[in-house]
Design brief:
The complex is a heterodimer of chains A (156) and B (151). Chain A has 156 residues and is mainly α. In chain A, 74% of the residues lie in helices and 2% in strands. Chain B is α/β, with parallel strands linked by helices and 151 residues long. Chain B contains 5 helices and 5 strands. Classes of the chains: A mainly alpha (156), B alpha/beta (151). Chains A and B meet through β1, α1, α2, α3 and α4 of A and α1, α5 and β4 of B.
Chain lengths: 156, 151
């Protein structure tokens, strides 16, 4: 067993760039010009990301009761949705991911009804024009409360 | 996602970018070219981001065990973050990705490079983020007292 862990200082291994280059890189990273270019890149990513999410939504409907496949698709939707401007879709996907993750972690069976409700809400929110924020937020809030209650019950 | 990351990296002047579909392809790519930074998703098949990181950090023939690795994932649960940290990732970037968050992780790597630690069961960036000067305890390890002048 190693008693004394070896500490390797940053100057003892190859760095991503020299200190001088680092200073220049920071100027670029923090410049308004870079911010504008980055925002343009983010804006350009919205249509393809939205298309990708709709593809995942289609797949989500096709996987039936396969919980692993549902989790994989919902996880991808959670990761992409907000970047694509689908805030409510992302929020509902996040609630479902956390529910599934927590239940698996505490070795409790998933409630099919909870999963089905979330999947239906994700499908509806993603396909609604402009994410239907008002209604979606109400649905997301209700689902979050339901999941919180179920997780509390399951932890007892 | 990869095209968005490519565009964001292009925005800060990074032009030479290699893409890989999964962990093993990324390792092959690291062997083929010198890489200064790795952005890795966690959920990949057949080799995921955690196994990729472990291979880069620990494999005897790793081309660059010190390369900074930013792990990008939607899995933000605490135990998953800890798993990524213990695999040896340098920075953790939760989805949804924003330019600000990506750039701040890169800035962290450039401006505040971390020491590496080699000990039983771990090789990678120092997992302790902060050093507090004049910290007087409490101590968690028996060995800590060897270096402390207790008066």
């Amino acid at each position: 067993m190693t008693k004394n862990p070896a500490l390797i200082a940053p100057d003892a291994y190859p760095q991503m760039m020299s200190s001088r280059d680092g200073v220049e890189a920071m100027k670029v990273l923090r410049s308004p010009h870079t911010a504008a270019k980055a925002q343009a890149a983010m804006d350009a990513a919205v249509p393809p990301m939205r298309a990708a999410i709709l593809q995942y939504v289609d797949e989500l409907e096709d996987v039936g009761g396969d919980m692993l496949k549902i989790f994989e698709r919902v996880h991808e939707i959670r990761g992409f949705a907000e970047t694509a401007g689908l805030v409510t879709t992302g929020r509902i996907a996040d609630i479902l991911c956390r529910y599934m993750d927590d239940m698996v972690r505490i070795n409790k069976p998933l409630d099919t009804m909870i999963v089905t409700l979330h999947v239906a809400a994700i499908v509806r929110a993603a396909r609604a024009e402009d994410d239907d924020l008002a209604m979606g937020e109400v649905v997301a809030g209700e689902l979050a409360a339901l999941v919180a209650q179920r997780l509390t019950d399951a932890s007892r | 996602m990869r095209s968005l990351l490519r565009a964001l990296l292009n925005a800060i002047g990074i032009k030479e970018i290699a893409e890989a579909a999964h962990g093993q392809a990324a390792i092959d790519s690291l062997h083929e070219r010198k890489s200064d930074l790795v952005l890795s998703d966690l959920a990949m098949k057949p080799m995921d981001g955690l196994e990729f990181t472990r291979q880069v950090r620990n494999h005897a023939h790793s081309p660059n065990p010190f390369v900074p690795i930013i792990m990008i994932t939607g899995h933000t649960e605490k135990h998953r973050v800890e798993e990524a940290r213990d695999a040896g990732v340098t920075e953790f970037l939760a989805k949804p990705i924003t330019a600000h968050n990506l750039f701040s992780r890169i800035a962290e790597i450039v401006e505040r490079p971390r020491a590496f630690v080699r000990c039983d069961g771990y090789f990678g960036p120092d997992r302790r983020r902060r050093t507090i000067d004049n910290y007087a305890g409490p101590w968690r390890r028996k060995d800590d007292f060897q270096d402390v002048d207790v008066r």
